[in-house]
Amino acid sequence: MKNKRRDFIKLTGLTGLSVAGGLLKGFAAEMNEHNSFSNMQNTNFDEQNVSIIGLYGGWAAGLTENKLPSFSFRNDKWKSLDKWRNAAKERLEERLAIPDIGGMPKVTISRQYTYDGLQVEELTWQLPYGRATEAILLKPANTKGKLPAILAFHDHGGNKYFGTRKITKTSDQQHPLMVEHQKEYYEGAAWANEIAKRGYVVLVPDAFPFASRRVMMQDIPAFLRNGLSDSDPENPKNINAYNQWAGQHEHIMSKSLFSAGTTWPAVFFAEDKKAFDILCDREDVDANRVGCCGLSGGGMRTVFMGGLDSRIKCAVPVGFMTTWKDFVLNKSFTHTWMVYVPLLPNELDFPEILSLRVPLPTLVLNDEQDDLYTLPEMQQADNILGEVYKKAGAMDRYKCSFYSGPHKFDKKMQAEAFDWFDKWLK
Fold this sequence. Notes:
By secondary structure, the protein is an alpha/beta fold. The protein has one domain (107-425): Rossmann fold (3-Layer(aba) Sandwich), CATH 3.40.50.1820. It contains 13 helices and 9 strands. A 9-stranded mixed β-sheet has the order 1-2-3-5-4-6-7-8-9, sandwiched between helices. Strand 8, helix 12 (375-391) and strand 9 form a beta-alpha-beta unit. Helix 1 packs across helix 2. The chain is globular, with a radius of gyration of 21 Å.
């Protein structure tokens, strides 16, 4: 896994995409060969104050350090849970600038079949912009009546060519890159399939801008294409070339969304909410028993969706929990542009986005050696969420678990997540 993630850093580290710290040592060594300044010693340099933005780190982190964000429920000024949640959600929605993407779209079943004991539906729906969204729906075959449901979010993984296929398996003939992907991140499991087998209706939509929602070469100016085209798209060589291009394109997309008056997390939320509406509208779904879950980029989407929509009765973000301070000082370079909400750190720390769902059940899963975060700040995020749930009198509905190993959602973690869903949704 580290080799793949290091390759990803090498391709995208200067654009703000998900990267791993390991490559930096090799990259720095390579740079040192050409940089005479690297051999100079600064005897006044305090290594305790090292940050990814140099001597500016301490100052930047100090802007919000040692004071509670103004909309934090940990702040003594907030006594009423409902008044706090309403005010904090309103402020978060203002900061996100969530776009209006219309009403309920028409859903088309492109194909329907059974595989591995599951009924599979390949769905599409058209939003007011872009190409149609493709999604996979899974549920146990030959079931009747209403079932609990899961909105399952695929990861980022530096791979925008794929979406739903990252966490599903609908045929014995998987793309070899997806066999490798599931082996690295999910211990070889298609986790959306596995939880569906437990008696859930599971919807996995392509996220913006992944897979069916990705930016196509034919739709952008020729000078931005780097010689790429949309031909022979399933060829692994072309997929890798596209993913490299898409990584370098993220800063363009992000700046364009900012210029349009919205944010990337807002677009995620708007589209994920539409998928959630579609899931809850189904006759085979009990809309009062629906949860959401995802790893990495999917964990980030779980944080926003779980925090903002109280219809999510159970939320399990995996491999995406830390503090804004961690991003400021240590890890913004390891993350996609999709994370950031301007000005929000003054008002809510990152875990407090998820805390807006208190007292609804929440499980956070972390990896101790996850190079996307520092362990102390993952632990601090746990402390923050614990404080909020304790103040709300709902500590029995919050849990955070740490697993040994790198960035992943392996079978042991999946088992805990699935058991948590069973506890609260069945």
